[in-house]
Amino acid sequence: MNARYPIAAAPAAARLGAGLLAWLCPLAAVAQWQLAMEIPDEDVLQYEPIVAHITVKNFQQQAVTLGGSNATVRCFFDIGKTAGEPVAAFGDPMREQPVVVPPGKAEAFTVNLTPYYAIRSPGGYKIRAVLAAGQDMVFSREARVRVHSGFTIRKVAARLEGDARNLRVYALRYFTRDNSEILLLCAEDEDRTQCYGVARLGQIVRLRTPVTEIDGNGNIHVLHQSSPDYYTYSVVNPLGRRLHSELYTAGSAGINLYRAPDGLVDVTGGVAAESEPDAPAREEK
Question: Is residue 11 part of a domain?
Answer without folding.
Answer: no
